[in-house]
Amino acid sequence: MGRTGILKNSTMICAPLMGETVEQTVKEMKQAKAEGSHLLEIRLDHITNFHPHHHLPAILDNKPLPLIILYRPKWDGGLYEGDEHSRLQTLRLAAELGADYIDFELKVASHLIRELKINYQSATKFIVSCHITGTTPSDEELANLAATMRATGADILKVVENVTDITEIARIFHLLSHYQMPVIAYSVGERGLISQLLCPKFGGFLAYGSIKGYSIPGMPSLYSVKHTYKHDLMNSETKVFGLVSKPVSHSKGPILHNPTLRHENFNGVYVPFFVDNLKEFFSTYSGSDFPGFSVGIPYKEAVVEFCDEVHPLAESIGAVNTIIRRPCDGKLIGFNTDCEAAITSIEDALKGTLISGKLFVLVGAGGAGRALAFGAKSRGARILIFDIILKEQNLLLLLSWVKLEHSNKSLISDRRKEQSLRMEHARNASIY
User: Fold this and answer.
1) Does residue 38 have an active-site annotation?
2) Which member of 46, 158, 231, 239 is catalytic?
3) Which of 90, 283, 295, 428 is most deeply packed, by most CB within 10 A?
């Protein structure tokens, strides 16, 4: 899966800009270009006291990149609450001034696009957009919707959703990869993040990235798109790995793993998967394009039952943090790398001192905690595991116990005192 000789994909990266003044918008346009955006989406409805004949030329005259002009009404999720005729006149003006792209809602697109193509023989491209609420339509329903949008005379189709489950995004990918004209399709929110990250793999016209200082929930930053995920290196052959977790936005996995994939010259990408239902997830993303997963909280124990086979160490621990799809038959094989990785790191830090006989205090009894407890116990350590939810007084007792254990070795050998302290913590700890 090397990258040698592979052409770059055609997906462009777009920065949505929502400045409240023309001056701020011009400043953000320059910033977005510096951060690597290919084109810019200008939300006119966010500009306070917007005056079309004064402000629109000022924006277009100062553009450093091609612009998508969007003037979204409140009835379609925007901020504009004024007269509809005035709004449409503004978009006509944008066409007259030669805007690169103009975004129209499906509801008003049909007659406007035909009119503008007749009246203005320019290079302006027209985007027809539809915001879907509720459950994502089936592949067939999305195809029918796309056909309706195309019939308006659109040059580019845009479908925006707010999925309730990550498995719905598979239908977005199907639309992107199968429809025979430029399509923008994605979901907003954290569950929809992979629709932006994997857009180049499935052939989307553009994907979005936010500029520094203006983060948007569920949207990657321009920096991460360009540097962490390297959109320009993705193509239809890119293999997708990722962390299965809930929540998942905290993960540093993409920052760690994506440079490794590139260093090995492997055509792959590592992304965060916000998963609500393990069964549905593995059933939906079951092909060879998804050859492996990391597993995070809260699924390291629950995911065991969804593996076709489990490595003996992971089976003994009762937790899986790595899943590989076996190429020959597609079966999911579960492993646990937490155990050896953590214990050998601790051994290295101890610089030759044996773990045997030492006390391990673990705060947390989830999958990772189980792995550490198993590894330490197998090397002869004594284990004290506290539940992950600790009240303040319990945490103070724990710290006191660690301090006493470190400074007074006689406590370790005094079984009666140790038993008394263990009984004191009985409600909040499990002792092995």
Assistant:
1) no
2) 158
3) 295
Q: Cβ–Cβ contacts within 10 Å for residue 211, how many?
A: 23
8 is known as an active-site residue: no
Alpha helix (H) ranges present in 190-266?
Answer: 193-197, 222-223, 253-263
Peptide bond into 298 cis (omega under 30): yes
Residues 106, 282: Cα–Cα separation, whole Å: 35
**Cβ contact 68:95 at 8 Å:** no
Query: Which of 38, 63, 257, 300 is the catalytic position?
Result: 300
Question: Sheet holding 429-431: strands in order across?
Answer: 359-363, 382-386, 429-431
Q: Which of 82-91, 166-175, 335-344 has the lowest mean pLDDT?
A: 335-344
Among residues 55, 131, 174, 226, the one annotated as catalytic is 131
Average pLDDT of the chain, as a whole number:
88
Phi, psi angles (nearest 5°) of residue 287: -90, 180
* pTM for the model: 0.83
* Amino acid at position 342, single letter: A
Catalytic residue among 45, 100, 103, 338: 338
In angstroms, the Cα distances linking 327 to 15, 36, 38, 257, 292 are 38, 37, 37, 21, 10
Give residue for tokens 């890119």: 238
Q: Measuring CA to CA, which residue among 344, 240, 330 is closest to residue 294?
A: 240
pLDDT tens, residue by residue, 362-401: 887 777 888 888 888 888 888 888 765 544 544 454 455 4
Residue with tokens 């977790």: 245
Task: Dig out the tokens for 51 from the structure.
Answer: 């005056």
Note if 300 is an active site residue: yes
* Domains of the chain, start order: 12-236 (3.20.20.70), 255-336 (3.40.50.10860), 347-431 (no CATH)
First to last CA, the chain: 46
